[in-house]
Amino acid sequence: MRPSFRLLSQAAKTPTRSSSIGFIGLGAMGREMAHHLVTKTLAERTQQGRPTSFVVCDSDHATVTRFIDGHSSQIAAKAGHTLVPTAQPSSVAKLCGTVVTMLPSSPQVRDVYLGEGGIMAGLQDASPTAQEDGTLLIDCTTCDRATGVEVAAKMGETYGPSSGPSSAVTMLDAPVSGGVSGAAAATLTFLVGSNNTAAFEQARDAVLSKMGARAIHCGPNGAGLTAKIANNLVLGATMLATAEAMALGVKGGLSAELLAHVLNTSTGRSWSSEVNNPAPGALRGTKHSPPADRHWEGGFAARLQAKDLRLALAAAEDVGLLVPMATMASKIYDRMESMDEYKFKDFSVAFKALLDSAEAAQAEKREAAAAREKAGVAV
Ligand code: NAD
């Protein structure tokens, strides 16, 4: 006998694994992305009468608590939705048919997917449901291509091929462009690598479209990471060039606001000059509010840009390419990463680092002159 509509709707009152969504890594980017994913999925699923469980995870307990506190009132218990905190990636994979990860870099991706208490272990616990109902794993981290390809291959080897529409467990690399402001406005661009076109379309329509403005299928697994690393090579270099130009102009007597206006209406324009200008006050009167106006707090940490340029150098070595511009930029960001006053600030703090080192060089000169004067040497 076919179940009645009434019975079906009663059965649908509890979230199932396939309707549940997990998010691991609620940092500067992840918390904004998870916010949109939860809010928009909730609205959609409440209308459909399809209860959903959201499982959120971060290795930092306080980060998870903040997210739960900020969203629990919005989860309508009467509609059957739940918001579940956990510190274990394995629990996320055990409970959810869709999992998004947004982690710092390659070591964390390996750990979260393949380590003890990781996603692979959770899929084993959820077996055979994880295979029968299918599991979609979307890694948005900017990590090295080899890690993305290897982890996706391991998932495929263990749980079925990662190509073909019937794959049981499918993993995509989907790093993002657009920064924290793009994550907050849900205007990110996802650069996706997937051997499986059907999985790409499913991820784009059901998940990525809620967190961003577009998803570009760049090719097979790893292709999204190659595209992202190439983009961030340009980003890192243009930010340094913009910081130097802004420092040059400001020290030469121009106001930051005027020089930004000149660059942004001339050929020097880029995202670094127009949206994330490194000089405080440069974008006053525009719709943009760059980290430079908040002592370079928030945004894209200098340590992450340093990491991305190292990824670019490794990728260039893999394909036998010389990249002198990226090599120089990498040295500068590595130095910023080694200094606590810059490491955690937005990478546009390169502007301050330039002025600080100019000031330090001046102070050194003055000290040397004073020392010579004291010693009675003519200066
Ligand atoms: P972040 O350091 O602010 O966030 C990373 C989060 O992952 C943190 O909350 C951390 O506690 C958590 N985490 C680390 N290890 C974990 C583990 N083993 N298990 C669970 N959680 C763990 O970094 P972010 O700025 O959000 O960047 C995330 C990724 O996005 C990076 O790869 C970065 O390069 C990329 N990205 C960042 C920006 C940006 O503007 N910040 C823009 C584009 C891409």
Automatic annotation (TrEMBL):
<feature type="domain" description="6-phosphogluconate dehydrogenase NADP-binding">
    <location>
        <begin position="20"/>
        <end position="219"/>
    </location>
</feature>
<dbReference type="InterPro" id="IPR008927">
    <property type="entry name" value="6-PGluconate_DH-like_C_sf"/>
</dbReference>
<dbReference type="InterPro" id="IPR002204">
    <property type="entry name" value="3-OH-isobutyrate_DH-rel_CS"/>
</dbReference>
<comment type="similarity">
    <text>Belongs to the HIBADH-related family. 3-hydroxyisobutyrate dehydrogenase subfamily.</text>
</comment>
<dbReference type="Pfam" id="PF03446">
    <property type="entry name" value="NAD_binding_2"/>
</dbReference>
<protein>
    <recommendedName>
        <fullName>3-hydroxyisobutyrate dehydrogenase</fullName>
        <ecNumber>1.1.1.31</ecNumber>
    </recommendedName>
</protein>
<dbReference type="GO" id="GO:0006574">
    <property type="term" value="P:L-valine catabolic process"/>
</dbReference>
<dbReference type="GO" id="GO:0008442">
    <property type="term" value="F:3-hydroxyisobutyrate dehydrogenase activity"/>
</dbReference>
<keyword id="KW-0520">NAD</keyword>
<dbReference type="InterPro" id="IPR006115">
    <property type="entry name" value="6PGDH_NADP-bd"/>
</dbReference>
<dbReference type="InterPro" id="IPR013328">
    <property type="entry name" value="6PGD_dom2"/>
</dbReference>
<keyword id="KW-0101">Branched-chain amino acid catabolism</keyword>
<feature type="region of interest" description="Disordered">
    <location>
        <begin position="269"/>
        <end position="292"/>
    </location>
</feature>
<dbReference type="InterPro" id="IPR029154">
    <property type="entry name" value="HIBADH-like_NADP-bd"/>
</dbReference>
<feature type="domain" description="3-hydroxyisobutyrate dehydrogenase-like NAD-binding">
    <location>
        <begin position="222"/>
        <end position="350"/>
    </location>
</feature>
<dbReference type="Pfam" id="PF14833">
    <property type="entry name" value="NAD_binding_11"/>
</dbReference>
<dbReference type="GO" id="GO:0050661">
    <property type="term" value="F:NADP binding"/>
</dbReference>
<dbReference type="GO" id="GO:0005739">
    <property type="term" value="C:mitochondrion"/>
</dbReference>
<dbReference type="InterPro" id="IPR036291">
    <property type="entry name" value="NAD(P)-bd_dom_sf"/>
</dbReference>
<dbReference type="GO" id="GO:0051287">
    <property type="term" value="F:NAD binding"/>
</dbReference>
<comment type="pathway">
    <text>Amino-acid degradation; L-valine degradation.</text>
</comment>
<keyword id="KW-0560">Oxidoreductase</keyword>
